[in-house]
């Protein structure tokens, strides 16, 4: 499978991303985290295990775009415009309605961050299913 920054995400790729994003520990790590590279490295590795070849930057960009589009549609609905729609709206609604509302905790330096150590993950891009991904 070819990978590139401009390659559109297929419906199956988005579904795989949403399935990982919907996991409680992932949602908790993503909620309000400012430094989230480690989380997206982990998500990209999980996607590779499912046969989806995306790097962490592509995963983060898709996450941000989906979240932005969802909030735009949700705002329109709340404003009385039910004509705005998006694919996966109900999936995202289920994921995002469960975001914790508590304040972020800060480390001793006053920063809110997620590290790879906190996630107990590896940054290698090896795929355990034998699928080869090439990132350009």
UniProtKB/TrEMBL annotation:
The protein's name in its UniProt record: Myb/SANT-like DNA-binding domain-containing protein
Gene3D superfamilies in the record: Homeodomain-like (1.10.10.60)
Species: Pelodiscus sinensis
Pfam families: Myb_DNA-bind_4
Domain Myb/SANT-like DNA-binding: 7-95
Cross-referenced InterPro entries: Myb_DNA-bind_4 (IPR044822)
């Amino acid at each position: 499978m070819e990978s590139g920054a401009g390659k559109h995400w297929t419906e199956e790729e988005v579904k795989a991303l949403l399935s990982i994003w919907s996991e409680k520990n992932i949602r908790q790590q993503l909620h309000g985290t400012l430094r989230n590279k480690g989380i997206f490295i982990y998500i990209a590795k999980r996607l590779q295990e499912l046969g989806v070849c995306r790097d962490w930057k592509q995963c983060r960009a898709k996450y941000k775009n989906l979240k932005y589009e969802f909030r735009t549609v949700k705002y329109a609905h709340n404003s009385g415009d039910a004509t705005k729609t998006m694919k996966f709206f109900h999936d995202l609604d289920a994921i995002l309605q469960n975001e914790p509302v508590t304040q972020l905790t800060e480390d001793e330096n006053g920063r809110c961050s997620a590290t790879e150590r906190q996630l107990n993950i590896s940054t290698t891009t090896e795929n355990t299913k034998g699928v080869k991904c090439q990132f350009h």
